[in-house]
Amino acid sequence: MYAETWKSISVMVQRSERWCRYMAKQAARPLPVYKVGGIVRLDESDFQRWIGEQKRASACETPAIMAA
């Protein structure tokens, strides 16, 4: 399953369209959207993999308060 508009992507990820566009532009670990012609696309399996990577990355990061 995949989403082909920012609106349908936002429904899939349960966030706002603005958040989705912002996360797609991030240099580190961007939301895995692809442009096909003039259509933006997000595959659900790519999104699930991305969520897993985000969770693993955040679990490995040490909060600044605890590092001091």
> Major sheet, described briefly?
3 strands, antiparallel
- Uncertain segments: none
Helix content class: 40-55%
Task: Provide the β-strand percentage band.
Answer: 5-15%
The sequence of SSEs as H and E is EHHEEHH
Cα-to-Cα separation, first versus last residue: 45 Å
What's the quaternary structure here? single chain
How does this model look, in words?
It is a single chain. This protein is α+β, with helices and mostly antiparallel strands and 68 residues long. Helix content is 54%, strand content 15%. It is built from four helices and three strands; from the N terminus they run βααββαα. It has helices at residues 6-13, 17-24, 44-60, 64-67; strands at 2-3, 34-36, 39-43. The chain starts with a strand and ends with a helix.
Give the topology, please.
Layout: E1 2-3, H1 6-13, H2 17-24, E2 34-36, E3 39-43, H3 44-60, H4 64-67
Antiparallel strand pairs: 1-3, 2-3
Short description:
By secondary structure, the chain is an alpha+beta fold. The chain is built from four helices and three strands, in the order βααββαα.
What labels would you give this structure?
three-stranded antiparallel sheet; 68 residues
